[in-house]
Amino acid sequence: MALIPAVFFLLWASTASQAHGNKPNFVLLMADDLGIGEVGCYGNNTLRTPNIDRLAREGVKLTHHIAASSLCTPSRAAFLTGRYPIRSGMTGHDGGYLVLMWSAVSGGLPTNETTFAKILQEQGYTTGIIGKWHLGVNCRSRDDFCHHPLNHGFDYYYGLLYTLINDCQASMPSEIHVAFRAQLLFYAQLFAVTLLTAMVTKRMGFLTVSWKVLVIFASVGIIYFAYWYVAYEFLRYWNCFLMRDFEITEQPMDLETTAGKMVNEAKSFIRRNKEGPFLLFVSFLQIHSPHFTTEKFRGKSKHGLYGDNIEEMDWMIGEIIGAIDEEGLVNNTLTYFTSDHGAYLEGLHPAGRGFNGIYRGGKGIGGLEGAIRVPGIFRWPGVFPANTIIDEPTNLMDIYATVIKLGGGKLPKDRIIDGKDLMPLLQGVDSVSSHDFMFHYCTDQLHSVRWYQKSNQTVWKVHYMSPKFSPEGAGACYGTKFCSCSGNGIILHNPPLLYNLSGDPSEKNPFPHDVGPYREVVQEIEQAVANHKISLHPVPQQLYRFNNFWHPRLQPCCGTFPLCWCHKE
Ligand SMILES: *[C@@H]1O[C@H](CO)[C@@H](O)[C@H](O)[C@H]1NC(C)=O
Ligand SMILES: *[C@@H]1O[C@H](CO)[C@@H](O)[C@H](O)[C@H]1NC(C)=O
Ligand SMILES: *[C@@H]1O[C@H](CO)[C@@H](O)[C@H](O)[C@H]1NC(C)=O
Ligand SMILES: *[C@@H]1O[C@H](CO)[C@@H](O)[C@H](O)[C@H]1NC(C)=O
Ligand SMILES: *[C@@H]1O[C@H](CO)[C@@H](O)[C@H](O)[C@H]1NC(C)=O
């Protein structure tokens, strides 16, 4: 008889703990462009990252953690939706762009994509994002905010809707469309000379076209060049502004105070919501160029401004985990740290070149490990073991399934979710990852595929194409901004190259074509690619030219367009 009340008590207790209280908080920390070779606990002993290292000491460090893309916009889209960016139309493409290029573009994370924040919001979570977004703003007007974080499941936003770029720092040379701008200048001069010549010859009676035609020619040209002049001349105003929820607070932003403001925002979000449950996504502006670093950290690292910038970010992380500790939330908070993709090897200038440790390739080179293998640290004392290293293949998209499950939500059933629940692996219940295949795109081109052959405990990777590196074999394209993903800039591998990543993580020695398992492995992967391709459906492309150039009518503006500036705080 005593058994029945006991069973009821257990049932009651388990539903009660699900209904309130015991839902964990989530603090997700994402660096921008940080390489796996640039973190202390991943082997860098010349940079100081004590706070990231502390998270690893108190939790689980993943050494085979893979980003879904090697560039910001697609990688972040995948992170938030748990789906390969090709499923949401958030990949770049040939003849288009690689990422969103302005804040005033109509492309962005489609409104019918469901972020983990949206699902957690429905589960009673207060959700916030602080920092970089880079997933679009508006669709049709200056303030419809269709792609804004507040329309994608976040209750609170503070930060930079676009991304840090050199143009945000007045003293730096511009980095946006540099080649195109040089062309524009040339054509503007050509246009001016042609127009002047036409007017003079007309005046002298040698030209037979009417004045009306000349006026139309002049007007079209002037409007065209004036449009680009305004777009580029005031780029800092158009792209580098801070916003709180739907309100611009600083246009252009003051870089010297941004890091401090972001830290304060993150701490105050944690304090405001300590009764929980909450989800806070801190998306750092570091360590994207221009590597602007506040005075306190300038000149302090062994790696110039680049290293200073990393150490500044580590300090910010220390402040944020400090707030979790101070509020007594540590045992009820899953804290995660990662980077959106590998470090940028080409750099805009040599001092800004990143480092991906033993892995070949970097930002933008979708198929190589250096582009996509990133730090991944999970801390949740009492739930995850401390000081533990897991070398099983995992993906940034897995966060989606993991936090939704922990928050009591359900994965959307009407679409494919590529991420997998990491809890069994992180808690040590499973020792083997649930991933079999991962597909590595460079824009919309499938460059390589990873296969975890569990029966042989081997992670294979096949390369179908790779960029023509310069110099050859460098794993980077020095002297250009990015390697190509298709066309003349790539080499097709037919038959494909195969690597045993388990034994050759630097992808140096292709497995011989005529030896042992080559055929079997390549065939198995071929089949997985075919199945993957069947699962893809055409969707509207968000980064195509027309969706991805400056639309003045979509320009977020503090003031009356085009006079956009303010400093409210
Ligand atoms: C640490 O990271 C810096 C910055 O990328 C890099 O230059 C340096 O080589 C790395 N040091 C080690 C020991 O890995
Ligand atoms: C967190 O849990 C650990 C044991 O897992 C305990 O030692 C520690 O005191 C707890 N901290 C707080 C703030 O509750
Ligand atoms: C791949 O490399 C690992 C580590 O060197 C080795 O244990 C494994 O046997 C290799 N797999 C094959 C199929 O050669
Ligand atoms: C995997 O291992 C089995 C034996 O354990 C072997 O027969 C098979 O050829 C291996 N496959 C590959 C692709 O290495
Ligand atoms: C979102 O809408 C687009 C355009 O109608 C459609 O192609 C796509 O499949 C939709 N995505 C989802 C996840 O429903």
UniProtKB/TrEMBL annotation:
Q: Which Gene3D superfamilies does this entry report, sorted A to Z?
A: 3.30.1120.10, Alkaline Phosphatase, subunit A, Helix hairpin bin
Q: Which PROSITE patterns match?
A: SULFATASE_1, SULFATASE_2
- Report TM segments: 184-201, 213-230
List keywords of the entry alphabetically: Calcium, Hydrolase, Membrane, Metal-binding, Signal, Transmembrane, Transmembrane helix
Identify the gene encoding this protein.
arsh.L
Q: What is the protein named?
A: Arylsulfatase family member H L homeolog precursor
Extract the signal peptide range. Answer: 1-21
Membrane found in the keyword field = yes
Q: Where is the Sulfatase N-terminal domain?
A: 24-408
Q: Which cofactor does it need?
A: Ca(2+)
**Which protein family is named in the record?**
Belongs to the sulfatase family.
**What PANTHER family does UniProt report for this protein, alphabetically?**
ARYLSULFATASE FAMILY MEMBER (PTHR42693), ARYLSULFATASE H ISOFORM X1 (PTHR42693:SF50)
Q: Name one Pfam family in it.
A: Sulfatase
Tell me, what is one Gene Ontology molecular-function annotation carried by this entry?
metal ion binding
Which InterPro entries did the record assign?
A: Alkaline_phosphatase_core_sf, Sulfatase, Sulfatase_CS, Sulfatase_N
